[in-house]
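Reading group handout, session on sequence-to-structure problems. Before we discuss, look at one worked example. The prompt was deliberately terse, the way you'd type it at a terminal:

> structure Pirin

The input record follows.
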Amino acid sequence: MEKVIEKVIPGKSTHDGAGVKLFRVFSNIPDLTDPFLLLDNFGSSDIKDYIEGFPWHPHRGIETVTYVIKGKVDHRDSEDNQGTIYPGDLQWMSAGSGIFHEEMPKYIEEKNKIYPDMVGFQLWINLPANRKMSTPVYRSIKGKDVPSIRLGSSEIKLIAGRFGNDYGAYDGGTQDVTYMHVKLNDDRIAFSIKELYRAIIYVFEGYAKVGNSVYSKGQAIIFSEAGNSISVSGKGELMFMSGRPLKEPVAWYGPIVMNNYDQIKQALLELQHNAFVKDRKPLFE
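And the output record:
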């Protein structure tokens, strides 16, 4: 049985970090997007829109997944991880009990020529209560390790989870998350997936067709939990995500997401007393 569309979200343009221009696809509607919390589409062809980046800031209780399509992002964190996310690469970070990090989008320069275009995504995934205070984990996933699946003239980059008999670069963790970058190049060829959980599609280029309806750039399509299959066609690019809902209480304060506000108050108290990051000292000391 085909899943039905429960809601279409238009998203909105905003700024975050130190003034990075981005498109906030969805945020803080966990009843509709569980286990996902937020999806940002950041980037611009104007360097001034992103160069100040996302300076040093904390996270607790979530996973952040940063995917770069154009440009690059420099990263460092309080676990002594650092590196650069190049086009096609990902960073999948479990903040767990607490981490500080910074992500600084940069243009690519080759042979004295500047390529200013920046396109990327950051997805926040909620952690279950029994993992919110787990040890932080940093995972770097190179683009060459992301399986590419051809569907006629269309293509799926399988970041996490499973599609048919293929498995993604990351297994999706304990939450059974599927995350894919889909390029649709033919109205006649449907991209179909068997899906048991809540699913979300975000169109970021061109258009996608679901049933008799057409959805354009900037729209997020949220499918019901009921049903077990989705078919999409069109000419465009989209991000597809699905995951097992946690169905747990959500208490959210900025970059900290817990299950109740006593836990939020404790996190803020630890921030004030330099005790937020467990067993390590923040790099700014």
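Points for discussion. First: Residues 5-243 form a domain with the Jelly Rolls fold (CATH 2.60.120.10). Second: The two ends are 56 Å apart (CA to CA).
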